[in-house]
Structures are given as structure tokens and as C-alpha cells.
Design a protein that fits this description.
2 domains, six-stranded mixed beta sheet, Aminopeptidase, hydrolase, Alpha-Beta Plaits, alpha/beta, Bact_exopeptidase_dim_dom
Amino acid sequence: MDQQDRLMQEIEARREDLTALCQDLIRIPTLNPPGDNYRAICEFLERRLTKSGFECEFIRAHGAKGDSDKYPRWNLVARREGAHPGDCVHFNSHTDVVEVGRGWTTDPFGGEVKDGKVYGRGACDMKGGLAASIVAAEAFIAVCPDYAGAIEISGTADEESGGFGGVAYLAEQGYFSPQRVQHVIIPEPLNKDRICLGHRGVWWAEIETYGEIAHGSMPFLGDCAVRHMGAVVHEMEETLFPALALKRTDMPVVPEGAKQSTMNINSIHGGENEQEADYTGLPSPCVPDSCRMVIDRRFLIEENIDDVQAEIHAVLQAVKDRRATFSYDVRELQRVLPSMTEKSAPVVQTVARAITRVMGTDPQYVVSPGTYDQKHIDRIGRLQNCIAYGPGILDLAHKPDEYVGIQDMVDSAKVMASGLLDLLGPPAAAS
């Protein structure tokens, strides 16, 4: 029996362990915001990986967005050196999960197993992928203990809120420099037969319209900022959204609707602040003098970021031309340029061969509709040999009753381990 077959058998033998590991990770409620239990999950990973010979380092993202003494942004980087010189393969997974939301029929942090699936917040996005990468690495080490190079596994913070307290910080500190790491696989849930090459761009901004406060019984003495914002939304509906629908990309973005430019209105807040939940009185009768809207604009590799911004300013200017007292500000919150790894990159070719070996099918190459931490590895780390590959169905991310299939985790772990055999195993194991 060759090493490839032995490796597949080794992972099959670890199916129950893989399932239990995913359950244990789900049961640590790493909600972001605010950033709960980051240290706890890093300590859990340290206990697990130390047993497999990894040297673990805790890194707090001091000064990064979101980091505070109350909610410190903790990250773990684990590294295991091989017996001979060679490349480093790094598996990066974010440990944070989004809010639970309503509509669950299972315990969001129970890790319940039902019908071959593990349920819970983060099961799909992306604790199932983290568990699969750990088991893949451990199985590879067991079968090929004299491997070359190094294996790294990281559990990082804040991907769901931009990754600035996680991968961005690590990249700034040199953890993703091409001299240290040569291949990166991010086990995001893009389906087990897909290789995700990158993502669209994003521009987040806050638009604030201004008015003049007055008594609500005499609104004619004031100037309603909410009505001004309503005019902005109307102009977007009439001109911007139809224009975005006409922009198309050659990037293999999934799902189909994301092949066009999109914009989401994240939130609108106008008037006085909402009171605490235990407040039983009525609001005061005031004309709102401020209204704020957060927009989330996703753009294509064919678009220029300056043009993306100019479209918003054109909307606002059109409103200003019609409303004599209209005034506003625009504040940029975040910008991320599109990223896409070439199909010819070594990590892409390696994982493609592994998918074909394990699943008997050619991989599908896709691009994510939303950004993930590849943006920081690419732009800050200057490492382009990076992909997303992992178990789970993208459409389940952030949904109630989120789950990951156990067989999908097993198959993805086989692909990851097979890729390790190609990249770090003895020459006779490569194919």
C-alpha cells in the first residue's frame, strides 16, 4: 500500500475524532462582535496541537481595530518543523463567528450531530474547516513523519469584522512573508470540490445627511435629515442600482447573482438614539438633524475604486441639485481591492490534483462574493500563492441552523492531506 492510500485510511480512521473536534470548537462561543472567548479557543487549540508536536505561539493584536483589555484580540500560530528543509504550508482559519440570530431549531453552541451533519454557529463558517485542516495535518504527520519543510496552523481573530485583529496584524508582523510561508490554504466553506481563487472588492462608507432640530409639532421650523436620506435612497433606486446590475465580470464569482456589481444598505439611523430596553417612556418630539447610512459596495476586478466612489458622490450631487438645504458627509470605513490567484500557482495546481485523486472529478474554480482573509495575505504579506479550500456550503454561512456535513469534512481533510503529501512528502509520493 502506498503512502497516498495509507493517508486516506488514516483519515477515515479519524472520522469520529474529526467530528468531535468540530463539536468542541463550536461549543466555544467566539461571538464577534464583541470578541468573546478568543483566548479560550486559542488555548484549546494549543492543547490539541502541542500533543502533535507543534510549537504554539499566542499573539495579541495590540492596537488593532477591536482590540481592548476587555476584548483582547488573541491569535494562535502553531508550527511543526519537518525532518528536512523544504517549503512551509500554512492552514489559516478564523475562530470568530457572527451573531446567532433568530430561527434556530438546534442549540447554536451545542454541536449537535444529526443526519450526518454537525450543527451550530460556525459549523460551516468555518470551524468545520479548521477541524478538517488539523486532522489532515495530524494524519499526514502520522503517515509521513520524515516530511520536509514545515506545517503551520493558525486560529485567527476578527475575520467576520475585517480581520484587522487577526490575519492583517499577523501579516504586518511578518507571519505571512514569502520567506517564512510559501503556500497558504484557508479552509473557508466554498464546497469540497471547488478551489476559491480570490474575492471581489469592497468599499464600505458611511453617509450622513444633516438637518436642523425643531419641535415635532412644527417640522416646518426645522429640516428633517431623515427625509434627506430618503431622497438619497430614492436616487439610488432610480439610478445607481440599475447601473450596478449592468456591470458584469469575467471572474468566476459564485453564486450567479454576484457576477454583477452589488451594494447593500447595511443600516440607517436617524434622530435621537434608541433608549435602553428597560426605558418605558416615549421618545421626545424632535425633527432629526442627523441621519447616517452605512453602505457596503462590492465591486469587480474590472472596476476602479475611484469610479466606485465617484458613483456615490454623483448620487449625492444629484440630490443636492434638487434640495436647496441638502448637506452631507461621506466617510470611508473600509476598502479592499479584488484579489485573484492565478490558476497556475503551485497551491492551486496541488489542490486541484488532490481533488481529482480523492473525489474523481475535476475541481471547479470560483471567486467568493465577499472578502475573506486572503486580502491581507495578498496585500500586506505579499504572498500570492494562496487559496480558499474547505468543507461546507457557502449559502449556509451566517444562517440559522448552520451545519457542516461530516462526510464533507472527511473528504476535505483527505484533499488537504493529499496536498501536503505532494508539497512536503518524499519525491516518490508526488504525482
